[in-house]
Amino acid sequence: MHILVSGVRHRTAPIEVREKFALLEEEVAAALKILRSCAGVEECAILTTCNRTEIYAVVTDTELGLQSVKQFYKIFKGLDIAPYRQYTFNLLHEDAVAHLFRVASGLDSLIIGEGQIMGQVKDALAFAQREKTAGNLLDKLFKAALTVGKRVRTETGIADKDVSVSLAAYHFARQSDADLMNRRITLIGGGKMAEIMMSLFKQGMTPEQQANVVIVNRSRERLAELCGRYGFKGLGWERIDEAIEHADILFVATGAPHVVLGKADFEGKGQKLVIDIAVPRNVDPRVMELPDVQLFNTDNLAGAGGFSGDFQQQLKEQAQAILEEECINFQHWRMSLSVVPTLTRLREKVESIRKAELEASSVGTHYDVVDTISKNLIRKILHDPTVRLKNSRNLEDISQQASVLSHLFNIDSAAIESDVCEKPNVQRLDGTASA
Fold first, then answer.
1. pTM surpassing 0.90?
2. In this predicted structure, what is the pLDDT of residue 427?
3. Do 60 and 19 form a contact (C-beta atoms < 8 A)?
4. Active site includes 44?
5. How many angstroms separate the CA atoms of 301 and 169, rounded?
6. What's the CATH number for 165-300?
């Protein structure tokens, strides 16, 4: 079995490409079922955030697996990904493992150390478990990634800042307008990112400044909840024109998977700074054609509100040592799987001999005692070879030792997986070599 990851992320693809691959949370369950049904896919999970859509799969054949990912996008999203191959990335084996570890630790985020990614990785595993598309290998991989993320956040200073896309947007706006807190601000949306933004303004503003903040949401119930919690004025969606006209600065982060505000919504409404942090985008990019409107999206936020360059490099070096250690641990676990069939056959053979001898003996009323003693004896005898085989650090050593064990005890030797130590042959979804 081979592990692969295929997808797009902010480092490889601009937002106009990422939004074509994006999956909404409510789409993931159906997407997993279709992906799992594709040829060669034994296990699968999908990690989808505003900065990435990544498919993790355990496949019987890497080339077939990559073709199946291509087929999945065609079936589920009607998307031919061939024209976007320069923006996609594909990683296999150790590279796929290391990538997820980097993602979970916040090292591959738009803003280094972004903490929400841990929850998103956890959610990706939970979805796959719920839909029964995550087996032993992906379950172990994602749990190992969460362990890496926790270690990095605990053992380095990466958790010293509670960074997020919302925080980056907030700092970006402050850099763009030094008098931000005295401006008229409209927050459009009611999800996690929008609520983080509301919290930031609540903390940083005086009551007089807070009076200039307006929340817009389609759900009246959610709008009332947010206004009650943060003390800002609320407007229903039917008053969106009023909310836009009111604002000097707008932050847009709705849950809609499409554009909700177009060029006409901003025409004739004065100067605006608009920051759209939704993916797919909620504001039509043609709004930038208006001379009075400045429009920015998540691609403009890299580095805003994050760590300084020197400290960022220090964090990366500290985190890298943890990643390397945990990658080795995971690979050792994978290698140990290859001897499980051999050990299982050995135990089965020894157990059958034990039972046959016990049944043939004349222990009478002492049967239960002898049964227990013989079981414990067998367990202790097999303990050392089991531990030594599983703890071997080299696939060749494991293969040789398993072969010797099979020969000495006259049992069939299980095939040892060779993909664990293969040099990844990374290919794009169209079969061409990846850079």
1. no
2. 31
3. no
4. no
5. 6
6. 3.40.50.720
